[in-house]
Amino acid sequence: MGYPKSLAIGGTFPFGWSASTVAFGESMVHRSYTGRISSCQLEGRWVSVYVIPIDKKRTFLKKPDGFLSGRKANMCGRYQIAMEEDIIEIREILDEINERYKNKPDLSAMKTGEVFPTDTAPVLVSGNGRPQAELMRWGLTKWDNKGVIINARSETALEKKSFRTSLLNRRCVVPTTGFFEWQKRKSGKTKYLFRLPETKMLYLAGFYDITPTHKEYAIMTTAANPFISSYHDRMPLIHTPDVLWQWLTDRDFALEFIQHPCLMPLVASAV
Questions:
Q1: CATH number of residue 197's parent domain
Q2: pTM for this one?
Q3: Does 149 share its domain with 32?
């Protein structure tokens, strides 16, 4: 099957899908055209799209950020902060939070266990020569105040005005003991917890914004590596403990870090 020369996009679509017209030549195709999911350059950026040849007089839908390959591209829609006695790092972070927010209403809002978007949870920021634990809300408020943005694609974050300043100046680390993803089967959906094989700690790259009433953060994502690609085509951007301080304080290191894939092995267990 040949490549379509152009694709018409039009109409009103659910979930904020956008409508426009895209020039789509063979030289712009990133993966081989299959009549289904492919990639093309749109305004200088690679985007994943659902392709239908224009000569079949069908509608072509371009999925916005947040949707990819028929699934939400929002990766890491939930993560875990397990309260296990042997996870010393989590205990130390929670002890610091309890001391910092003693007798403050923020403390009662803190979520552990399974953390959902808009929950208040611990994050690490730079302070006093070391990573410092603070409480923030998960999800950046959208410009129209309708919902929140919980993930930011590392490949394009610098191009977005809503992310750029925070990524350059307000980076954070999200301490977790794993993140969740679902796999759809004929028998139903199975929930999996992803962790590193040698440790229960999983540090996720993020950045935060400051509003008049609170601080809020987003988790950065990147293309899935082979350990997770059969579950999802995105994954969180993961740090090792030895680079946390560099991520928080060194802008050049951070901008270089987000350009590379995350090759850490991940182990999935059904929960």
A1: 3.90.1680.10
A2: 0.73
A3: no
